[in-house]
Design goal:
The protein is α+β, with helices and mostly antiparallel strands. The protein has one domain: DHBP synthase (Alpha-Beta Complex), CATH 3.90.870. Helix content is 28%, strand content 19%. The strands form 2 sheets. A 4-stranded antiparallel sheet has the order 2-1-3-4, covered by helices on one side. A hairpin with a 4-residue loop joins β3 and β4. The two termini are 23 Å apart.
Length: 143
């Protein structure tokens, strides 16, 4: 199967743009990254299923929740290129041990965010955030 991105327009009424990373990987990646930086949403491959991604902003979160027809109480996860990117979250010994074995990979850890680094829609009312370091090379190129 060829990996592709479906890059949505910022306005939901416009048709999505399908990008094939095999025909011109760098140009297409630039388009996807620019779209995310403009608070757009992309669909991308993960270790298990395709996911929607955007910047962790109110607009990006709202767009993904609308696309997924998801209630705001059902939170989104954060993808990060390395564990060091989320070192300011609260880690316990078990989280460190799991991350050292299974990251990068399909493991999602729930870590404390008492300082409110991430907005609601990502951060729970209890101050927790679901975080994953993806092993997918395309995801790493975007992050």
């Amino acid at each position: 199967m060829r990996e592709q991105f479906c890059v949505s327009k910022v306005r939901m009424s416009e048709a999505p743009v399908r990008v094939d990373l095999h025909s011109d990987p760098e140009a297409d990646l630039d388009l996807a990254v620019a779209h995310v930086q403009a608070e757009g949403v992309i669909a991308y491959p993960t270790e298990t299923v395709y996911g929607f991604g955007s910047l962790p902003t109110t607009a990006g979160i709202a767009c993904i929740q609308a696309l997924k027809r998801r209630r705001s109480e059902k939170l989104l996860i954060v993808l990060t290129p390395t564990a060091e990117e989320v070192i300011e979250l609260v880690w316990n010994d078990e989280a460190h041990a799991l991350a050292s074995v299974f990251w990068p990979g399909a493991l999602t850890l729930v870590l404390g965010d008492p300082r409110g680094i991430f907005p609601s829609g990502i951060r729970s009312e209890a101050g927790k955030v679901a975080v994953r370091v993806s092993s997918n090379p395309i995801v790493h190129r975007i992050l």
